């Protein structure tokens, strides 16, 4: 379900972006799409609709806070969207996506830049060395890994934890940008 939901979400967000920003270049639309289907946004949407509370998890996992993990929320939302698509068709899935993502869609007037790009531009503007990313740990089974990544620039650092190395790098960059006040 998650695989199908991911593809349906990408299609529906791409369709919506093309309608909303018909004059925008493909690269800018791609950046918008990447943000709107990213793990942090999926987790935000899942929390907003109360999906975490609907998840059936073992008591130990519930105590560990698994219902609040971004990876779990994002995966569950994609699976739910896949099931909605298979059960109700593309029209029902479109209605749900446009309702659930409306606030996020309207958040950025200009095309967003991901945290790694913003961090790289920040350090380059100051003549600093490029950010240094490092995977600190990878735990969990192959089907549900969890990566901890750090990023350092000068004497400052940030960290992020996510279900993919790329997502953890984004979260680490975002954390460092907050530390730097950028």
Can you walk me through this structure?
The protein is of the alpha+beta class and 182 residues long. The chain has 9 helices and 3 strands. The chain has helices spanning 2-20, 26-36, 39-48, 51-54, 59-63, 70-100, 102-105, 115-125, 165-180; strands at 132-139, 146-153, 156-162. Strand 2 and strand 3 (156-162) form a beta hairpin. Helix 1 packs across helix 2, helix 1 crosses helix 6 (70-100) and helix 3 packs across helix 6. The relative contact order is 0.13.
State the gist of this model:
This protein is an alpha+beta fold and 182 residues long. The chain has nine helices and three strands; from the N terminus they run ααααααααβββα. The termini are far apart.
What secondary-structure arrangement, pairings included, does this model have?
Elements: H1 2-20, H2 26-36, H3 39-48, H4 51-54, H5 59-63, H6 70-100, H7 102-105, H8 115-125, E1 132-139, E2 146-153, E3 156-162, H9 165-180
Antiparallel strand pairs: 1-2, 2-3
Helix pairs in contact: 1-2, 1-6, 3-6, 8-9
